[in-house]
Amino acid sequence: MRYLYSLLLTFLSPFLLYSLYKKKEGKPHFGKRWKEHFGITPSLKTKQPPIWIHAVSVGEAIAAAPIIKALKNQNPEQPILVTTTTSTGAEQIEKLGDLVEHRYMPIDFCFSVRGFLKATKPEKMLIMETELWPNTLHTVAKFGIPISVLNARLSEKSFLGYKKVQPIFNLLGKHLTQICCQYKEDADRFVDLGIPHEKVHVTGSVKFDITITDKTIESGKQLRYMLGTKRKVWIAASTHEGEDEQVLAAHKLLLKTFPDTLLILVPRHPERFNSVFELCQNSGLNCIKRTSKKPVNVNTNVYLGNTMGEMLTLIGAADICFMGGSLVGNKVGGHNVIEPSLLKVLTLTGPSYYNFQQIYDYLISNNASFIIKDTIELASLLEKLIKSNKYKDIGDNCYKLANNLTGSVNKTLKIIS
Fold first, then answer.
1. Burial grade of 12 (CB within 10 A; 0-12, 13-18, 19 or more)
2. Is 312:325 a contact under the CB 8 Å cutoff?
3. Residue 373 — very low, low, confident or very high, per pLDDT cuts 50/70/90?
4. Given this model, what pLDDT does residue 37 score?
5. Does pTM surpass 0.70?
């Protein structure tokens, strides 16, 4: 079965590589480091075997950060190697500075993975979320390296997909030492797929163990002062293609009732910054980019967040948040609501939030988050919340509820130690 998979991967790899290396605006270049995808990996600075953490892209890299910092707090001398597949993920890891060394993850060919392992000699592998590749797991296990999956998610959709190819999942599962799941539902699905009970643990989501620094809170306040403290401000965070039009249409409806309301619009992917700016202009709204030197005034309708790494600052400047990835059918499945909650910002979501089902259900059941189905409902709910001024009290409740979900990092470290 694995040989058949390898043959299929050989045929598909040119298309996968084209997608990976395709130049896009705002996307960092791989440069000469493309060789690392084929296992031509530079040796590490340290001779001591590192803990290897794989975080495929930006989201996983962000989730890995609290684990990395906690491991370093436990043992400052412990070297940590982080691999990402994407260059945007690598850019995120760079923010950790000297805490880690970074290499690109080899493609899932045995020869590539062997080259990587010989160059880096890791003592254990920690995979963030559920990035499982048959040849990688087979080769790593063959080298005698234990493999743990951290912050694991397995939605019902993914579970049914794996169920259809159960023999392939069996190839994956037999090499896993342990799986630390976000929720009991995730753990139950892994067990239903044949993973032994003793290998599966429920630790919560490490994404909930976010520390919002005083500096971040202060930067949000400063931005709000610059945008205007007397006007209402809402943010559409991490929007995807097809959502921006809906968000802008909702904002236009809202402006009829509250003409000085400001929308902070933050596309998920940097390569879309310019096209979304043009969309704002073509919609007849006065839009200013965050990187622009033009001042924001009462006539500014949209403030475009066209920078990376400032999401918490932008959310912290808003009264209400709409979280993107939730109004584009089932293609994305929503994004993390914990960050706005810890910033005391009420968050709305579209109907598709399956990637964060449990946390949204928890907040929704406690009247701390609300679902909107379309543009009309989004505009109507925003108008209702602004009129009643209840979003402040709900935001405070979001903060309390989110704090109840912390502690995952410590649980995870106890298991992997």
1. exposed
2. no
3. very high
4. 92
5. no
Please give the positions annotated as active site: 60
- Here the tokens at position 346 are 């009420």
CA dihedral of residues 347, 157, 409, 415 (deg, nearest 10): 160
80 and 99 Cβ atoms separated by less than 8 Å: yes
> Which residue ranges form the domains of the chain, and what is each CATH number?
24-209+407-416 (3.40.50.11720), 214-403 (3.40.50.2000)
Pairing of strands 80-84, 369-371: unpaired
**CB within 8 A of 223, min separation 6: which ones?**
313, 314, 316, 317
DSSP state of 331: S
365 with 401: CB under 8 angstroms? no
Note the Cα 381 to chain centre separation in Å. Answer: 26
Question: Which residue, chain included where needed, has tokens 């969309």?
Answer: 279
Residue 207 has pLDDT above 80, yes or no: no
Tokens, residue 16:
């996968």
pLDDT at 219: 97
Which ranges of 121-165 would DSSP assign to H, the alpha helix? 134-142, 156-164
pLDDT band at residue 293, thresholds of 50, 70 and 90?
confident
Four-CA torsion 148, 179, 160, 326, nearest 10 degrees: -90
